[in-house]
Amino acid sequence: VGNSSVLTCPPKSNITMVTWKISPKVGGPCTLGYRADQNKTDRTNCSDSMNWKFRPDRDPALEIRQVGIAHEGHYTCEVVATEGNFHRTYHLIVLVPPRLTLYCDDQGTPMCKAAAGKPAAQVSWVLESNSTPKEEGHDNGTVTVLSKFTAYSTNVTNTTCVVSHPAGNQSKSIAC
């Protein structure tokens, strides 16, 4: 989320026509088109964040700027060239890194929160703990995971929360 993404088409010489057909999970479909004989581009229902990366006659790649969860979906490039018709389909999944917070609750117990990640983060502790994380789903598809540290022994002073996620791993330490 927040980055730019470039989706490429099959590279062909003598391109006659290129069409990007986009079916996002949220909102209606959109298309970007290019016709070589008229040197003309066309767009239907596409947001400003989606456009040709370069000139479509040179490189028909699609660029999505400031990728958001709403961009998830299917992206198909259709290239018509003298040697035939070519397709390439992408299924775009957007990862949202969770926000990690580590704090001590009212009883002095370490609490680790991985907020609004997509998919849900895995939360663990460096010192062995028999905690069961709680998950809370949000309307936008993100998930918050909350884990309470429960130590096997009582002489634990400092512990580390580890958040594992496809968008990157994080850790923080705390002494309660």
TrEMBL record:
SUPFAM superfamilies: Immunoglobulin. Gene3D superfamilies: Immunoglobulins (2.60.40.10). GO terms for cellular component: external side of plasma membrane. It is a single-pass membrane protein. Belongs to the CD200R family. Its main location: membrane. One of its GO terms (molecular function) is signaling receptor activity. Pfam families: C2-set_2 (PF08205), V-set (PF07686). InterPro entries: CD200R, CD80_C2-set, Ig-like_dom, Ig-like_dom_sf, Ig-like_fold, Ig_V-set. The keyword Transmembrane helix applies. Keywords: Disulfide bond, Glycoprotein, Membrane, Receptor, Transmembrane, Transmembrane helix. It is found in: Membrane. This is Ig-like domain-containing protein. It comes from the Eukaryota. PANTHER family: CELL SURFACE GLYCOPROTEIN CD200 RECEPTOR 2, CELL SURFACE GLYCOPROTEIN OX2 RECEPTOR PRECURSOR.
